[in-house]
Structures are given as structure tokens and as C-alpha cells.
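Q: I'm writing up a methods section and want to include an example of the input and output format. Could you take the sequence below and give the corresponding predicted C-alpha cells, formatted cleanly so I can copy it straight into the document?
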Amino acid sequence: MTQPKVTLVVSPRERFSYTRASLESIYANTDYPFDLVFVDVCSPESVQTYLKATSQSFKILRTDHYLSPNQARNVGLRYVLDHTDSQYVVFIENDVVVKRGWLTRLVNCAAETNASVVGPLTCIGNPAHQVIHNAGGQCYIKTDFKNGQARRRIKQSAYLTGRAVADVRDQLHRTPCDYVEFHCMLVRTDTFAMTGLLDEGMLATREHIDFCFMVAQTGGEIYNEREAVVTTDTLGLASNKAGLMARFGQLKLPDFQWSDLPYFMLRWSDRWDRASLDHLRQKWNLAEDKYFTKRYAGLGSRRHELLIQPIVQYLTFGKGSPWLEKLLISLERPFNNYWFNRYAQRFEQS
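A: Here is the clean output for your methods example:
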């Protein structure tokens, strides 16, 4: 029996410096045949050099400017739909490492359940595959009434987030759910005939929620295959919690390349975050309730976690300082807006 064809679409999450480790993990630990399309959204020269040296193994689709995650995914998705006969496309971000058997288990789950979407057990941080970030979850729209007015509200809860894999092994089995995340997500390609491409109005956040709503609207089913395991953010919070290193008095973030900073600042800009939340709310006719006000209040939180907080820890010798953190946030936010405007003007003129 012929195996279903699969194409992986690798696209950036927030930076480029883990590209090599991620691709090497995929090729070393994937025992199911696949094609791979790498969407290179203007990566630094060192990454481009590596990609060119290894591109005999995969297709590179390069853009000359930065793209949002859904825009980049659509570049790869269009190629898959137009140039391949793959039954499945797997979106996977460029900071993800995988555990052997991951893709076989995702494909088997889709084939055996007829699911439209399947996500793996997604872990976070170093060491890999030990702490759960996403194991699927519930997410649906509920209508209630306030002052006689109907309100549509998102109700969301995650399964097993923050739990150690070793503590919940009895729960690591295939589970139907309402959503999985784009860190790694297998989608049956014929699903896009009903949903269309990914919504590029979802620039920076909640795009997985939007897409899973679209899939559910078509009657498609979503599963989390917890025996398939990947890990994201191995360069992120877990590394930075170890603190900063000083070399001859020069500030250095562990495993963070400063050449990544321009894309990182755009990717997590207040403007893109806010626009995504506004678009989700308007698209699905949702009330501006606590779900949204909490996220509006948290604009820039990723920048604060990976840039501001480590700097504060360094300057205070690990003690921390709320007032210094607030000060740096107040200085960083205008800079982020300046960078966003500068990039937007350059892109519009190109």
C-alpha cells in the first residue's frame, strides 16, 4: 500500500539562529518519507549560506523582506498546493526539534481518525521533550447575555501545559481536541479547499485559534497525537532563566544572535499583536471581554521576557528590580514603535 505523501513547510517563528539545529533534527529523527519546503524570509547571511550549502535536500522559497508567520506559511502552502500531490502538509517552525517517530505517528493518527488537523505533544525548553507546552485544548465560542445583549465569547483551556512529561505518561495518548498550535501542525491538504489559505490578517498571535475555528466550521476534526513529540523554544525562556553571561563587560544573551533582533522586534511588535487580536475579535464577532483585555494589556510580553527581564537580571546581579524593569519597558516600547514604522515605510516604498 502506497504511503500518503507529506510535505513539510518550515517557516520562521521569531528568529533564525536555530535553523540549522532544527533542520538537522528533522532529517536525523524522521523515519517517514517527506519533502521539505523552507520559507526563508530574508534571513541573515550566515543562515542563507548554510541553506544554500544544504539545499539539495529541500526547496528554498526566499523573500526579500520579512513576512508574518501566516504570510510565510502561505508562501509554502501555495507551493505545496500548486506543485505537489501531497495528501498532507506539516507546518513546522524553525526553532523546533523533533523526537524520532514524530511524523509517522502524526500521519497514522490522521489516517486512522480521518482528522483534518493533527498536532503533536509540543514540549518547551532545554532539555528537549521533558516539559509540556501544548497537548491540545478546548476552545470554542459561547454566546451569553449581558444587559439583554448577546455576547459571543471565546472559552479556552489548555491540556497539561507546564506539566513534566514524566508525571503524566498515563495521559499521553491520542486525544480529540479543539485546537493545536502552529509550532507543528499536520493538515490534510484537501482541507484548504474548504477553508481557503491561512488568514494573513492574523499577523502575530492567536492564528492557530483562528485556523482551528475555520476547520471546525467546515466540520473537520482535530486531534492531539501525544505519542508524537516535538520541542519548541529551546533557545527561549528556559535558556534565559539561567541568566546572562558577561564577556569582558559586554552583555550577551545565551544562544541569542543579535542579527535576529530586527525580525524579532517586528514579529512581536505591539502593532502586529494588537492588529491580530482586533482582527480575530472582528472576524468572529466576539465581545471585548477579559480574554481580549488581558491580551491587550500583555502587548510586548515576549520582548519583555526575552530582552528586558534578562537585562534587568544582569544589571542587578540576579536580584531583579521591578522599577528598573518598568523603566526599561517604558523606553523599549517607543523604540519598538519606531522600528515598526521605519520598517513599514521602507516596505511600502519598495
